[in-house]
Amino acid sequence: MFIGNCNLTNKVASAILYLPPLFLYFLMMFVPQTYQEIKYVLVLMSLFCMSLILKPNKIYYSKRLIQWFFFYILFYLIWIFRGSINGSMGVLDLVRVQVVWPFLYLALFIYINSISKIYVLLKVMIIAAFFISMYNIYRVTSAMGIIPQLIELDDDFVIGFHAGFTQITTLNINSLVYLLPFVLCLAATGSNLLNKVNISNTFIMISTIISFGVAILSGRRVFILILIMNFIIIFPYLWYMRETRLLIKYTLIILITISAFAPIIAFSNEYLGLEYAVIKERFLEELEPSSQTPRNEQKEALIRGFSKKPILGTGLGIGVKDVVRSGERDWTYELTYHLYLYNTGVIGMIIFLSLLIYPIFWSINLSNIDPNISHILFPIMIGYISAVIASATNPIITSSFDLQWMLFLPIGILNCLEINLLRKYRTIEIPLMNNKAAF
Fold first, then answer.
1. On the chain, which terminus has fewer CB atoms closer than 10 Å, C or N?
2. Among residues 82, 138, 141, 53, which one has the least CA distance to residue 351?
3. pLDDT tens profile 227-259
């Protein structure tokens, strides 16, 4: 009896130690770039609790993670230094976001130290997708006067009703760039994973449908882009893997989601004047080079600037005089990859893209070693790829500490899975060199 009580006490104590970082991750997704004082407190609590869970002689960082992180920091240090030489005004901001905060994420990786902890983290992400979607539905309906406005989590928001389309620019809607493809993939392919995460199929379907609805109602072109890209990635993948059952399920999920969204479409047409022709035109105008949209103006100005220093670029933290998007931070633009091409040149751009692409190959490598972990990696990497694609037109994974979770959480999960595979193969005495993909 005494031993049983001790084990229960240890489990409760262990769970309490993991609460601060989990709550921190949830707030980064749900209220990004706001309530920073609370997040600072949670950071300090997480660092303190970390000292209590650390165990001597236990491996927390794989060799591959250390290598990736080294080149990531080195890349930013080199081009921030080059920018400072060329008169960059954003040096301190860049050092804080791109050098200091990544080390905090590296420290928080210690909490992702087992498969069970990954399951808990996935549960937090699913719950965050649900609450973000519900909050944005609440903001739209309160803006229409249907329900009273009782809660306002951020001041920097726009709820717009325009001729033929709606607009939602709450801060937390950016998190859906990762979470919507993530829950959509889980709903279609993650039955076994959902059982281990302890999330019902009903809840994941509800999260998928309302997230899908919010994405379309937001008027954000990037959501249409990533939904198309996800279909292009997932459907051929399931076909290639001959997962006929999952392929049928994925198709049904898409059809059910669209059908469930039909009442919202009808409601939008009647009360908001939503017109598909207008939405289609807004999406396609960004693809037309001759259209004078803000992003096309940025693209032209940044490419002109790149042509003057094509090899090493200007250095980070320097904008173009032709187009200024922010009076306070005139080195920032929506077009992430065009900006990095201008700031870092061809050489820097190759390094930067390599850093972003490497986790995809890392995940494929781990799946080849142990196909049993594919059920974890697939939704995680679908979300990651979506965030990387979305960053082409929105500075998502490079703009702030909060939104960088889309880049670093997948890295932390890959690190944990690799360490677990190392332990597994050492336990059953299978030399790593005998595997097709060595660590």
1. N
2. 82
3. 888 778 777 777 766 677 777 777 777 777 777
